[in-house]
Amino acid sequence: MLSPIRLVSEAAELAAHRHNGLARKGRSSDPYINHLAEVANLLATATDGADAELVAAGWLHDTIEDTDTTREELAQRFSERVASLVVECTDDMSLPKAERRRLQVLEAPKKSPGAKLIKIADKISNTAARIQTDPSAEEREDLADYVEWATQVVAGCRGGNPWLDEKFDAAVKAARAVL
Ligand code: ZN
């Protein structure tokens, strides 16, 4: 087992390499790594640095979904728990988007406590990325649509970390202010 600092550091490096050249989802054209750094840092802050595997999984949470990374590789390089947290946060990309979204709402309450925190942090980051100072009609519609869905997913994940719950509520409030 890697030391906590090595676990997080190696997760950040692998994520940076695997998502290299990719821009984030949503309206913002930030490099993808910015999203991963934000999610990992939200998790580190929420748990006050007490759970290195959770922070590592935050860095890696989109690697299986968006890159050629496998569960086996993550289990071998990091730990079984890191791999399993990432798998819990991986959508079946062979399904249409509407079905993936429906399943996220349905399955959120059944996730492990750690995966629930990653999902909330992910929704905080993705909501914030969609908030524009002067949104077009299309951007406004995308934000409204995202916030409505994310609120349903987060409803099934709340209660494990009040600070993270509040951060999500604040992101939703900021989004509603521009809608
Ligand atoms: Zn993500």
Written overview of the protein:
- The N and C termini lie far apart (47 Å).
- The relative contact order is 0.13.
- It is globular and about 50 Å long.
- Helix content is 69%, strand content 0%.
- By secondary structure, it is an all-alpha fold.
- α2 packs antiparallel against α3 (52-60), α7 runs parallel beside α9 (137-155) and α8 packs antiparallel against α9 (137-155).
- The protein has a single domain (4-178), classed as Orthogonal Bundle (Hypothetical protein af1432).
- It is built from 10 helices and no strands.
- The mean pLDDT is 95.
- The protein has helices spanning 4-18, 32-46, 52-60, 63-66, 71-77, 80-88, 97-107, 113-129, 137-155, 162-178.
- Bound molecules: zinc ion.
- Residues 35, 39, 61-62, 122 line the site of zinc ion.
CATH topology: Hypothetical protein af1432
Overall average pLDDT: 95
Major sheet: none
Bound ligands, named by name, code or SMILES: zinc ion
Rg, nearest Å: 16 Å
Based on the coordinates given, report the CATH architecture.
Orthogonal Bundle
Total helical elements:
10
Proportion of residues in β-strands: under 5%
Count structural domains: 1
Work out the helicity level: 55-70%
> Given the helix and strand composition, which structural class is it?
mainly alpha
What is the string of SSEs from the N terminus onward? HHHHHHHHHH
Question: Could you name the ranges where pLDDT drops below 50 across 5 or more consecutive residues?
Answer: none
The top level CATH class name: Mainly Alpha
Number of strands: 0
